[in-house]
Amino acid sequence: MEHKNSMGSRVQVRKVKKRVLFSSLFNKLLTLYIGILIVTFVFFFTIFSNAFQRYYVDYTENIMIKQAELIAEEYQKVGEMHQSISSVLDRVTLRIKVLDSYLDATTWIVGKDHKMQMVSGKEDSMILDRKLANPEIIEKVFEGNIISRETGFEQYFSTPVLTVGYPIEIGGQVELALFIHTPMPQILTLIDEVRSILAKAVLVTAGIIFILIYYTSKRMSKPLKEMNQVAKKIANGDFAKRIDVEGEDEIAQLGESLNYMAEELDKIDANRKAFIANVSHDMRSPLTSIQGFVTAILDGTIPPEKHDKYLRIVLNESQRMIKMTNDILELSRMEEGNLPLKKMEFNLHEMIRDLLDNFEQITKDKEVKVDVLFDKKEQMVFADPEKIARVVQNLLDNAFKFVNNQGTIEVETVAKQNKVWIYIRNSGPSISKEDQKNIWERFYKSDLSRGKDKTGMGIGLVIVKETIRQHNEELGIISNEGEPVTFYFTLSKV
What we know:
With 494 residues, this protein is of the alpha+beta class. The chain has helices spanning 25-75, 85-103, 135-142, 184-235, 250-298, 307-336, 348-357, 360-365, 385-402, 433-438, 447-452, 460-470; strands at 2-4, 10-12, 106-111, 116-119, 147-149, 161-170, 173-183, 344-347, 369-373, 380-383, 408-416, 419-426, 475-478, 485-492. It has three domains: 20-236, PAS domain (Beta-Lactamase); 250-334, Orthogonal Bundle (Helix Hairpins), CATH 1.10.287.130; 342-492, Histidine kinase-like ATPase, C-terminal domain (Heat Shock Protein 90). α1 runs antiparallel to α2 and α9 packs antiparallel against α12.
């Protein structure tokens, strides 16, 4: 976007892309893990603290009920075993004092008329002999019920209390109601102390886990960051960079895959450069010959009676260049899928015999013995005859190119179930294991091939591979020291 300033000049304005806070994987992982950590700790802290509060309130309530039961048992002894009311009251008073001291409680004993008969604790004792204003609660106790409440007696206490009501029977009848009140702040103070200890433990644990999360996130994101940098360098054509892979997890596997990709691209790039160099060399030679002979003819250096001879050389060189160009174009179209197969039935053995006739001259020149081992006279297959002829032609070219003088070439077919296996063997130097791996690659041409192939560019076997791949058939090479080199492929029988 451009704007004009007051001086009339143009000022270019570029929109700057804001960097998002959580754009990196490390920040995303760290934020996610911390979020999960916080939610988890808050959830469990809330659940645990509430559960502990409920447990401690129930625990205190059970203690109060147990003490109320003991006090009620003392009243039941009145009239039994000649115990007087005064001796019973003395023991009750002692139990109440212990209870008040242990739980900081206030204890009431209420008669059927709802009047206070005994009161203890720190609360005002002016309510003694007064009628209580909670008839519904008191009546439930006189009906023989044990009650527990956290509300209902607020007007008698300055702080909330936990109340337990217990019926006292004398002579088999409920004559009194016992109420024990324990201040809730005392209960909550202990609960708050436990919560404080729990919170400190949570903070310490969270701190340790945060450190672990931080370094784990760093460790997880570091190799991905390195992979990103390596991928950018590979995209810019630098295939030498590799990733240090540690472990066996998915990230390590991704790093190994990226290293493998870089190695393969490096090989392809090296083969491409070699291919360009070979093409340049192979094209330059015939072009130089053509230019030299045509120039010599035009300026009269070559006399008219020799024009036919040198024009034929020019024609041969032109045809060689056309063949090179056609090979490149055909391979390109095959890889792009622009050459669909035209499958039909044809006689494989007849095709091989016809193609072998093309090598009659080189057979004589190199004194090569050609053995044809067909499993039967005729063999019908279902494939694209034009493309399969090119496959056989290229493999025979390769065999005659590398066969030693006075050597042997063998063409064999073997029918197995619904397939025909075609073997083309030649005596001569073996192919190294390294060349066997790369011989089918685009742009690859072995050193041995460069020394003997004066007309090709090393893409004949690539065309073979692509053709057999399109037919969904098998293709391979067998080469061991001291044994013939064997190329083989399969076709579907009719």
